[in-house]
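INFO worker-7 received task bundle
INFO bundle size: 2
INFO processing item 0
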Amino acid sequence: MNKTQAQLTQESLDLIRQAQQTPSETLAKAYVQSGSATTGITAYDLEAPAKLLFPVLTPFRNKIPRVVGGEGIQANWKAVTAINTGKLGLGVSEGNRGGVASDSTQDYSAVFKEFGLEQSVTWKAELAAKGFQDLKALAASNLLKSVMIGEERLMIGGNTSLSLANTATPTVAAQVNQSANGGAIQDNTGFGVGCVALSFEGYLLSGVTGGVVQSYNRANADGSFDILNGGTAKPSAQANVVTGNSTPANTNTLTASVAAVAGAVAYAWFWGANAGNLTLGAITTINSVKITANAAGTAAGSGIANFQALGATNNSTNSLHFDGFLTMAQNATLGGYQKVQATGNAGTGTPLTASGRGGCVEIDVALKWFWDTYKLSPTSIHVNSQEQKNITACVLSGNSSVGATRFNVNVDARGMVAGGFRVTSYLNQFAMGGSVEIPIKLHPDMPAGTIFFETDDLPYPLSNVAQVKRMLLRRDYYQIEWPMRTRKYEFGVYFDGVLQHYAPFSEGIITNIADGVTV
């Protein structure tokens, strides 16, 4: 039987009276603080705006002048690199003229390139963020920062001209009778080892988790695709070795090394107990590796973790980039300082050497070379955290350095002293007019095992070089918001130019540096 409206109303009133007669403590239990910020009747305390917790460290980009005015397809300039190359004497005999001096000249050029990234914000995303943050402004700001970080890395290691040589076949050895805390390689087993040399870009793109990137297909915002090289040399041939009987059992260790590859800053190593099935197991910044366990690398995206899956190709240059500082320093035709540390003991390598006079032998040799060859002094030394640590250890190591080193110690009012030392500059004794102090700068993107010498000022009067290096631009940073084609805002940040270096011979590099210090 259907209830009338009056009956339903009366039943509702009866329920309300019943609820009002319920003890207050029972009602109180109906609402308690929820266990989650997004459940129950709970305020949501969201602090605006979003926090941007990522580093934007671009020291080279920040200091190098940006000059707009490039024209044509490339920057071109000429340089006189030496005068009176024959070193003719000045004496003149009676009635005769002097000897004819010869000068050396060189032509330089740098092709303009375009660079940029794109981002988009959907209409719904913009509406959802309303009252919290301007999402379009945030996305555009982050995109500009991404372009700046990318430009910094191009300045360091962009490579459009220096093709890495083929990776040589590794030299592999097996050590037996390791201690219980040594290796874990199986006894009486055949192992294969392969290697791929990596440029700076290859070092950034590759990883044990993710694989080695020989090339990748980049999808662009307009639906087009670019196939880009990943910064790898041609892989080595496979080297093989058979392990022996270790004590305790199955505690073998393998060591492998390859001839150092000019232009490489790192090496990817593959190994496996099954010849023909080698797995990525390590990436080192020296040309050798110590193998103590089975390889366990993985591939992600375009990465390759299986040695046999690598193509027998050289993918070390990128035609869409310009040459960066490390590439210029490693290019022998440009005349800069180059030093590759010796292979040393495989898996250990050759570290920096303490001079015993408060310095590093390798740095002293480089600074002497700059003076002897070009009569100049670098103005800064750029290092990774590993080399920052090891240079400090070099300076503070050895009994003889103690007497040559002065420590300024600040003691607070409570008589407390802070421990720890960091060498922040290096005194160059090979400079005109007395010693020159060179700052040592920690760079976030400098590879471990590499020291880079930079020169900002040429000690040559009337050189016609106002800035040793600059970004010569046809167009500096600009933002484009594209016409609407879907229900989202699409925009890009771009620039067009090239890194122009008037004196690439004034740069230098030490690579293949092992961690540690030889005292």
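INFO item 0 finished
INFO processing item 1
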Amino acid sequence: MIALPGRSPSDWSRWRLSTQFESRVSDGVIRQELNRILQSSMFVQSDRLTRFLRYAVEHAISDRNEPLKEYIIGTEVYDRKPPYHPSQDSIVRTEARRLRAKLKEYYETEGKEDPIFIYFRPGNYVPVFRMKDADVSYQVVKNSDDDLFIEGAGVPVAVIPFLDVSGQPLSSKYARGVTDELIHELMQSEGCRVVSANSIAHLGAQSSDLPSLALKLGVQVVLEGTVREEGSQIRVTARIVNADGFQLWSQRFDAEADPANQFVIQEQFASALVSRIRPQQSILRTADATVGPMILTVYPLILKSEALLEEGTATAVQAALVKFREVTEMAPAYARPFCGMAHCYMWTALHGALKSTELISNARVAAERAIEIDPVMIEALTTMGSVLGLEWKWKDAEESFEKAVGLQSNATGERQYAMLLTMLGRFDEAWVYLENAQQIDPFSYLQKTACAKFFYLSRRYDEAVNYFIEPARYGLVPVESRLYLALMHAMHGNRDQARSIVQVVQRSAGAQLDLRAWIAEIYAYCEERPLAEKIVKEFGLHSAESRLSNYRKALLAMALDKKEEALPLLASSFAQRDAELPFLAVDPRFDPIRELSQVVDILEKVRCRDV
């Protein structure tokens, strides 16, 4: 899909929807082009590809209502007989790849002067038609199970009053308050149409029959949940259910049951939930369409993938990447999973990966695909901003973020922008965006880690201790946050506290090299050098064969007071363009060598890499 230059987000969304529902290329022109292709030397001898192309084009421009599926092509074009299982017989997928390649070759040679192009997007058997001098493509789509978007004005949502399962005064207040705040947050969210509470109350007992309720209210999605109070904790569990009554997703938030701050906590419960589930595609945000069957099909997988990424562990991030890829294969024109893939690659690059440039390259491909699909999607713009930052293209990165935050406040985007500004040493500016993200979703593990990293790099150690002194307020503190806290304690002279934290983390660190290196560092700063060197030796952290980046090795050398080893490692880190290297300018661990000419030279080159 090609974006029209100079159009507003609303104009672009309306144009994009129109290309999904109608073809502006006449059937006669399409059939003339089809005959030209089939009579060409490339196709005249290929009976199977001729049958495939003719069938697909005629199916697209006919009045048939059934979607064009792999099974239909297999039986109608390739004469497969029951029992025919496309998952076991790849004839259609194989021939589709051949057909795409053959059409590409045709339009590069015999058909380069043709007035119209016919082609197929990867993973799709519906042909796309584009006039040679036009800057838009047209696809004939009859509402089917493969539709991402269908006619509508945003996503219609109903919120069922949350159930108090504890029967306590405070939990009862939270149940009512979270319900009200959730309705309010959804009404403020672009692309959501919320059914009034009175409409639900009017249906009375029918609200327990979710399919009937959804049908009567005309909604696609229903939110329900429970509130539980136990000791000093409040737990809110929220669920998303589709119109058929099947649960799509569940999210649990824990917080301190503080009666004095219940309004704030209720607001943040609702804000955090909506920030994770709200519409992201611009066509939905501008209420120019509503979600189609395919989005509802892959939505649970998307939310599961994002939840895994949110966990922020190597195992969870790799699992998220696999799931995001699965969604892109199922819905190749859906931008959201491409953003998720990019973030998985970037997370890995920022956690001691040896060849981070390859990961950033993969992230760029995914981010570019998201931008191509939806040029004004906020998440696509912030994802690209993060990629550009890790490519050391500072000006372009900041422009991409500024464009995104100008469209809408977004917890993920503002947190990522804050991390870019932190990397550049612009701490006061960074804190503004980080605080905005904190107000939207303080329960996020990635947010807690970003805050810990910011406090450490900006040397606000006392603030960090105060921030994390009551970890139960917004749930558990993730491992990475605890390690930053231990590092701050160690460098602030509170070695007993640092030692206590790292000992707990060490028990569950497994063989993750970045965590083991970090643990060794903290022990070294706690004057437990023999223990630190034992970990380095056991996991081969400084060996030439280690899968740890040279930047992380340089950090470890600094902790072990081997400054002469850190310098060549930093030079190698620059040569390999390690994603984490720009933090050299602000990380307190490099204070002892930052003024050396070799380090100054590296930093100058990194700062000037804005190309």
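INFO item 1 finished
INFO post-check item 1: Confidence is low (pLDDT under 50) at residues 1-23.
INFO post-check item 1: The CA atoms of residues 357 and 577 lie 6 Å apart.
INFO worker-7 idle
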